[in-house]
Amino acid sequence: MNLKSITLAAAFTLTALTAKPEIMDNTVTSLAPAEQLTLTSEWDKVFPKSDKVDHHKVTFVNRYGITLAADMYTPRGATAPLPAIAVSGPFGAVKEQSSGLYAQQLAERGFLTIAFDPSFTGESGGQPRRVASPDINVEDFSAAVDYLSTLPEVDPDRIGILGVCGWGGIAIQAAINDPRIKATVASTMYDMTRVSANGYFDADNSAEKRNAARAALAAQRTADYRAGSYQRAGGVVDPLPDDAPQFVKDYHAYYKTPRGFHPRSGNSTDGWNMTSVMPFMNFKFFEYAGELESAVMIVHGENAHSRYFGEDTFKLLHGDNKELLIVADASHCDLYDNLDKIPMNQIAAFFTTYLPVK
Predict the structure, then answer these.
(1) Could you tell me if residue 226 is inside a domain?
(2) Could you point out which of 20, 24, 338, 358 has its C-alpha 20 to 30 Å from the C-alpha of 193?
(3) Helix (H, G, I), strand (E, B), or coil: what is residue 155?
(4) Closest Cα partner for 84 from 120, 109, 63?
């Protein structure tokens, strides 16, 4: 058989089927062992603990062998099997911030949830620290689905995901690739590939500006390797310059104040490794968005600077199980933690519709 005449997936299958038994080694092909992570035992979230749910920490391993840490929230007194939702984001945040709030709120409404730290961040494993990857971060959501699917208290046919901010776009990308995900919510979403390549509002969308950015980042790689350490990009700017845009002021009001500050959050402290943006500039989410068959809800604030990401992504989706919800008089960061603005009941109703009881 000519391998050029078959698909890449078929080629992988053919290779597996024709491999000689003597080179099949389970020590090479088995799942990576879980890393022993150091997890904080006390409640250190930026939101109060609910007395309506049970909470404990869990870990699971992704396809790249990175052990992820998560907070699990279970509705108190609920009967298994339960629908489950994996939550992450915002981009540069940790599970003790917005994602944990969403997870706890949805657990109060009857879902088993986990809020996880992405690879290389927070309490999760992976070296070096503070690295982002469009591939690995999409994989993180599928690894969460792997874990949830094997829990006896979870119905594996009723699993959804929710991403906040930059992780909203990552969630949709994960759903395109993973049909086990039956419903996806992207709240106040960014498309991290678009903003990395084009700048805010596509103001830097030119080959000249991208090539200048690539040259600067390539030079930074050399400097990092020579120094033996990665230069951080910096978290949310602090102190605020006088001419800061309103959305930067909103970020500061969340990440740099007691409202949302957390010491493990890159956005609250010194940010990502500067070169983490490189793969996002050379990667494009949503190339196959029109093929996504499962349900999606995109939620944005009426006044959010990021609203264009959600509206443009929504236009790529097909089917009557897709919904765009614009929240009146809400900004981008209102949907991080303002429970008077976050449409939590509507989000829960969406998940209930598409993760129904059998």
Answers:
(1) no
(2) 338
(3) strand
(4) 109
Residue 78 CA to residue 112 CA, distance in Å, equals 9
Structural domain contains residue 272: no
- Residue 250 in domain: no
Q: Is 320 part of a structural domain of the chain?
A: yes
> Domain residues for 323?
31-191+285-354
Q: Which of 284, 310, 281 is nearest to 297 (CA)?
A: 310
Could you tell me the pTM of the whole model?
Answer: 0.92
Q: pLDDT digit string (tens) for 92-118?
A: 999 999 999 999 999 999 999 999 999
For tokens 């990667």, the residue is 283
Strands 112-116 and 67-75: antiparallel
Question: For position 312, which CATH number holds?
Answer: 3.40.50.1820
In the chain, how many domains are there?
1
Residue-by-residue DSSP string for 40-99: --S---SSPPPSSEEEEEEEEE-TTS-EEEEEEEEETT--SSEEEEEEE-STT--TTSHH
Q: How far apart are CA 101 and CA 220, in angstroms?
A: 36
